[in-house]
């Protein structure tokens, strides 16, 4: 019994709430509409009328640079308000300097502090004027932006929008400074790179010339050494030819008589001048002893004495090993014999 009573009471309560909520919503809507027609719209109409416009008239977006009026300081309130309304219609909120709505309204307040028309107009148009200052910042016209911000500060020094505008202006200035500094650094780096490249090229050209001159000198010296060595070899060969002729004559004579005869050089080999000694223009001599075999070849070549020691030894031994002799004869037969020879090395 109690449960059914409670459920019936709840259904009855829900049914009663719905009409109440609808009535509350309707009252709120009526109050909003009334506030619009009774408070907000008349106030907007008043502001538009004071600024020389009409609520239904669209504001032109084109800003014309009108010449500033003459003798602004001598204007009365009505003239200043008229100039301000003209500037508002042309959206000259903050610019150009000396001929904009804010400056005219501020002059009105200087002549009549607390003037409602000027105060309301400055307050209502502050956001639009702030947009104008922001556009100047974005265009990086920093001097103009600073002038407009200062003008806004005269109208409403406590407005937080000023802090935002000043921060944006400072940030844009710093950004521009960084970009300009970066451009200068890049230009300087490019100049330094070009200078370094030119210096490197000059150094490379100079080194190439030096190497070319050095190579020419080395080639000239090598040609001179080769010519000198060829001359020396020619002289040695001529001496060997003379010795060969004499040896051949002696051999013929000994062969004819069948008597004993010493070994005779028939073919001499010029000693090769050591490269190291030629480079340092070193001279010397070597005394060698060797055996002339029955076939006329040499063997057992040894150095007895040399000056300087060990410089020309190998060259002397190699030369003697290439010598050819008419062997020594004993009782008409070829026999081995020991010989000794001094070989000169001169430049």
From TrEMBL:
Localization terms from the record: Cell inner membrane
InterPro entries: TonB, TonB-dependent_transducer, TonB/TolA_C, TonB_C
Stretches of the chain forming a coiled coil according to its record: 204-233
Keyword field contains Cell cycle: no
The protein's role, per its UniProt record: Interacts with outer membrane receptor proteins that carry out high-affinity binding and energy dependent uptake into the periplasmic space of specific substrates. It could act to transduce energy from the cytoplasmic membrane to specific energy-requiring processes in the outer membrane, resulting in the release into the periplasm of ligands bound by these outer membrane proteins.
Bilayer topology annotation: Single-pass membrane protein
TM region positions: 21-39
Swiss-Prot/TrEMBL keywords: Cell inner membrane, Cell membrane, Coiled coil, Membrane, Protein transport, Signal-anchor, Transmembrane, Transmembrane helix, Transport
Top-rank taxon, per record: Bacteria
NCBIfam families given in the database record: tonB_Cterm
Name of the protein this chain belongs to: Protein TonB
GO cellular component: a single term: plasma membrane protein complex
GO biological process terms on file: protein transport; siderophore transport; transmembrane transport
Sample GO molecular function, one term: energy transducer activity
Domain TonB C-terminal, chain residue ranges per copy: 258-347
Entries under PANTHER family matching the protein: PROTEIN TONB, PROTEIN TONB-RELATED
Family: Belongs to the TonB family.
């Amino acid at each position: 019994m109690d449960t059914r009573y409670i459920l019936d009471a709840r259904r009855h309560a829900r049914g009663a709430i719905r009409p109440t909520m609808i009535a509350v919503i309707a009252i709120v809507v009526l109050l909003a509409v009334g506030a619009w027609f009774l408070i907000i719209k008349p106030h907007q109409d008043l502001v538009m009328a004071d600024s020389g416009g009409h609520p239904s008239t669209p504001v032109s977006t084109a800003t014309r640079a009108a010449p500033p009026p003459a003798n602004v300081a001598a204007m009365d309130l009505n003239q200043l308000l008229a100039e301000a309304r003209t500037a508002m219609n042309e959206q000259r909120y903050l610019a150009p300097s000396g001929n904009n709505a804010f400056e005219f309204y501020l002059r009105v307040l200087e002549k009549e502090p607390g003037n409602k028309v000027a105060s309301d107009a400055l307050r209502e148009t502050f956001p639009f004027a702030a947009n104008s200052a922001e556009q100047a910042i974005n265009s990086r016209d920093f001097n103009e932006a600073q002038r407009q911000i200062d003008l806004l500060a005269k109208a409403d020094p406590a407005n937080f929008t000023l802090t935002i505008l000043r921060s944006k202006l400072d940030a844009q200035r710093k950004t521009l400074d960084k970009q300009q500094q970066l451009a200068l650094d890049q230009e300087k780096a490019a100049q330094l790179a070009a200078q370094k490249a030119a210096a490197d090229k000059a150094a490379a050209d100079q080194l190439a010339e030096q190497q070319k001159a050095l190579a020419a000198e080395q080639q000239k010296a090598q040609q001179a050494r080769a010519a000198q060595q060829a001359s020396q070899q020619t002289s040695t060969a001529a001496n060997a030819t003379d010795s060969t002729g004499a040896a051949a004559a002696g051999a013929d004579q000994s062969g004819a008589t069948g008597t004993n005869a010493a070994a005779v050089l028939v073919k001499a080999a010029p000693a090769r001048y050591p490269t190291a000694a030629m480079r340092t223009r070193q001279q010397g001599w070597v005394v060698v002893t060797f055996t002339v075999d029955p076939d006329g070849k040499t063997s057992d070549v040894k150095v007895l004495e040399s000056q300087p020691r060990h410089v020309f030894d190998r060259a002397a031994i190699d030369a003697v090993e290439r010598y050819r002799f008419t062997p020594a004869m004993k009782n008409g037969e070829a026999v081995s014999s020991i010989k000794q020879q001094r070989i000169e090395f001169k430049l």
